[in-house]
């Protein structure tokens, strides 16, 4: 390569980095840091008023959207809609805020992790017992499996007639590439410390003993799910098991079976809470979380390096799927 080509290549590389730098500086210059990071707000989250009323008597509306998972392999590039820790923090904020007299959780999720669902459920029960605040659930398009698990202890559950809910149960899945590997001459080398260290391995068939071990785990988690509904809905264990065979129900069917209390929208749920809890003059607000620095930088980086981040996210997904986990999840 002659000198002129080296110079041209150097200029091109320089322009590329200058362009990336300008995009980053532009993002910084146009960012609303005051609202983004809540610099002047003592509270963890800002409040968006959706119905006017007395600020000393409030109803807090929290939105739970997406799969309930606490998995952030690449925090800088993960700008997804659901953030487990922040949702727990919102619940804690609503619990501690003395002006909040009632809480409504708008649930739109197919469920998610067993542990994450249990953490939300425990926080709701804590709010009811320690802060003595009513918690209502308003179901959106889907409030299935883990979505129903967290709804079970609510003082009232309201669904749309077309909501998909139920899916009471536990599932654990993994891939098995053993046959494909044999056909294509792919060998797997596994060195392990114990007989069951590679249980649910993708490289071989599962043994009957391994299946029994995992089934016992799933059955134990299912027992917990059943008990949560028995306690939360006041149903008999036999009735819960009858309903909890994994199937989904529409909102109308769920009401007929006693899984939800009423049919209506989020607005209807707010009206119900106001009337039933004597909060007629309450101000209704939704929490708005400021974008964290990692989310801001992640969004900026995505705009700068484009679709290559999709490959990183796919790689993280495959890596995560290689570690099977039990889920309260409705999978279609």
Structure, explained:
By secondary structure, this protein is of the alpha/beta class. 46% of the residues lie in helices and 19% in strands. It has 2 domains: 1-30; 43-171 and 245-329, 2-enoyl-CoA Hydratase, Chain A, domain 1 (Alpha-Beta Complex), CATH 3.90.226.10. The strands form 2 sheets. Strands 1, 2, 3, 5, 6, 7, 8, 9 and 10 form a 9-stranded mixed sheet that branches. The protein has a two-stranded antiparallel ribbon with strand order 4-11. Helix 3 runs parallel beside helix 4 (114-131). The longest helix has 28 residues, at 3-30. The chain is flat, with a radius of gyration of 25 Å. Mean pLDDT is 83; it is low at 33-42, 73-79 and 312-319. Keywords: Hydrolase, Protease, Serine protease. Pfam families: Peptidase_S49 (PF01343). Residues 129-279 form the Peptidase S49 domain.
């Amino acid at each position: 390569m002659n000198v002129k080509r080296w110079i041209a290549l150097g200029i091109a590389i320089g322009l590329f980095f200058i362009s990336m730098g300008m995009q980053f500086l532009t993002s910084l210059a146009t960012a609303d840091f005051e609202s983004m990071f809540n610099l002047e707000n003592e509270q963890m989250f800002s409040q968006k008023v959706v119905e006017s009323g007395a600020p000393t008597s409030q109803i807090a509306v929290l939105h739970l959207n997406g799969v309930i998972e606490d998995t952030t392999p690449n925090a800088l590039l993960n700008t997804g809609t659901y953030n487990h820790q922040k949702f727990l923090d919102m619940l804690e904020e609503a619990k501690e805020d003395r002006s909040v007299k009632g809480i409504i959780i708008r649930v739109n999720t197919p469920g998610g992790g067993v542990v994450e669902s249990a953490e939300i459920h425990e926080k709701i029960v804590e709010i009811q017992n320690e802060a003595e605040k009513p918690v209502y659930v308003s179901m959106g398009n889907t409030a299935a499996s883990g979505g129903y698990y967290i709804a079970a202890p609510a003082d009232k559950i309201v669904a749309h007639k077309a909501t998909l809910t139920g899916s009471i149960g536990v599932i654990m899945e993994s891939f098995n590439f053993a046959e494909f590997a044999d056909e294509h001459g792919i060998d797997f080398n596994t060195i392990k410390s114990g007989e069951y260290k590679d249980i649910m391995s993708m490289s071989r068939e599962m043994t009957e003993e391994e299946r029994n071990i995992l089934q016992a785990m799933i059955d134990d988690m299912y027992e917990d799910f059943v008990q949560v509904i028995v306690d939360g809905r006041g149903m008999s264990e036999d009735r819960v098991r009858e309903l909890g065979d994994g199937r989904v129900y529409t909102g109308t069917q769920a009401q007929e079976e006693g899984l939800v209390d009423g049919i209506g929208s989020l607005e209807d749920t707010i009206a119900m809470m106001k009337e039933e809890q004597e909060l007629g003059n309450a101000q209704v607000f939704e929490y708005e979380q400021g974008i964290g620095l990692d989310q801001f930088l992640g969004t900026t980086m995505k705009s700068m390096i484009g679709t290559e981040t999709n490959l990183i996210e796919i790689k993280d997904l495959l890596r995560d799927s290689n570690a099977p986990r039990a889920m309260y999840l409705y999978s279609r």
